[in-house]
Amino acid sequence: MNLEQIYSEDEIRVQIFKALADKTRLDIIRILRNRGEEMNCGEIGEYIDIPKSTASYHFKTLREAGLTATRKESLNKYVSLRLDMFDKYLPGFLDTL
After folding, report:
1. Phi and psi for 77 in degrees, rounded to 5?
2. What is the DSSP letter of 81?
3. How many CB atoms lie within 10 A of CB 81?
4. Distance from the CA of 39 to the CA of which of 9, 55, 60, 83 falls in 20 to 30 A?
């Protein structure tokens, strides 16, 4: 691995840790992990009782860090964990939740 690849990997790690440095986002990850499948954004928002605009911000932050994937179907958005990213950058992390 060359120095450029190392810096790129470190930038990904920084994004991940920034995304995880918030209790609400940890709650979202915990909910998705416990469910074990994708969930509707509104349903997740109801679990953690936050306004839609706030939830959207948290979903965007997690998606940009590569920790979740979002799929749109009609008017609904569905979120799922990107287990490949957790396995690569945070092995065992989900088991601690």
Report:
1. -115, 140
2. E
3. 21
4. 9
CA atoms within 13 A on the CB side of 3: 0
pLDDT value, residue 53: 86
* Identity of the residue numbered 13: R
User: Residue 70 in contact with residue 81, Cβ under 8 Å?
Assistant: no
CB 80 within 8 A of CB 68: yes
d(CA 33, CA 4): 33
Per-residue pLDDT tens digits for 5-59? 766 889 999 999 999 999 999 999 999 999 999 999 999 988 898 888 899 999 9
Buried/exposed 7-31: b ≥16 CB within 10 Å, e otherwise: eeeeeeeebbeebbeeeebebbbeb
Cα–Cα distances (Å) from 21 to 25, 38, 89, in that order, read: 8, 22, 15
Measure the CA–CA gap between 92 and 90, rounded to whole angstroms. Answer: 6
Closest CA to 40 of 30, 28, 51: 28
